[in-house]
Amino acid sequence: MKDLQNLFSVEGKVVVVTGGSRGIGEMIAAGFLANGAKVYISSRKADACNATAARLQAECGSECISIPADMSKLEGIQTFCSEFKSREDRLDVLINNAGVAWGAPLEEFPEAGWDKVMDTNVKGPFFLTQQLLSHLEAATTFEAPARVINVGSIDGIKTPVFDNFSYGPSKAAIHHMTRVLAAHLIKRNIIVNGIAPGPFPTWMLSTGVGGGGDTENTDWDAVGKSNPRGRVGTAPDIAGLAIFLASRASGFTVGEIITCDGGSVVS
User: Fold this and answer.
1) In angstroms, how far is CA 83 from the centroid of its own chain?
2) Which domains are present in the chain?
């Protein structure tokens, strides 16, 4: 049995986190950086992505590189992959976290909202994984498989409370795509799993609960009171689970969707 430090170690791993400039993606990226990984983050807005990468590198002491790209379009995915492959010859951990939502009443829900959510939340992770397969295979060994971690949502498991009619179906799709990819890629020694987060103090949830996206001034204590755990999630909650799924500790865990929600689904 490996000692505890090695069992959960991600030191020296090359990691990609999409949607890494804020929210859950930033929390996950910070967790890997704090534990010695080299992390590439991506988001659509270049200024925000660059600023987050610079700040995380300064705070965590490990190298954080920004490659801004629109992961909802194949062109953006190819641009990201071209830049990443010019810098690295392997990829240990791919975390497909980039996601969007669109809110509108059922009678008014637009095609643009449906397509944007599906393209970002489902199409993007599939084609990014496809385009980075060669680098995942370059990193994998029988004892230390490369990892793909897809970030879904509890809204893909239970009925969402908000009028975001494409979001829940898109997350249900990424959950099932996780299982499909896991079945195919385990034969190539790549482990695929998923995370279904519940309420975390993010821009997206802030807009849903009336905070207008102002994460600093949203009353997260009030939001957390409706959760069985009595609070919203924290950075160690989500980063710890992602690190587990990227480490030796999860070496026999394949195709799972693990909730990180304070008990929302089971309650």
Assistant:
1) 20
2) 4-198+233-260 (3.40.50.720)
Single pTM value for the model: 0.96
Q: Which residues contact 255 (CB under 8 A, 6 or more apart)?
A: 178, 179, 182, 183, 186, 192, 193
The answer to whether 75 touches 52, Cβ cutoff 8 Å, is: no
Task: Give the neighbor-by-neighbor strand order of the sheet with 14-18.
Answer: 64-66, 38-42, 14-18, 93-96, 146-151, 190-197, 257-260
pLDDT of 47 reads: 97
Query: Do 175 and 257 meet the contact criterion of CB atoms below 8 Å apart?
Result: yes
DSSP 267: -
Q: And the tokens for 190? A: 């790549």
Selected catalytic residue, list 167, 200, 220, 244: 167
Rounded CA-CA distance 136/146 in Å is 6
DSSP state at residue 187: G
Predicted confidence (pLDDT) per residue in 153-191, tens digit: 999 999 988 889 999 999 999 999 999 999 999 999 999
Look up 167 and say whether it is catalytic.
yes
Say how many C-beta atoms besides its own lie within 10 A of residue 258's C-beta: 17
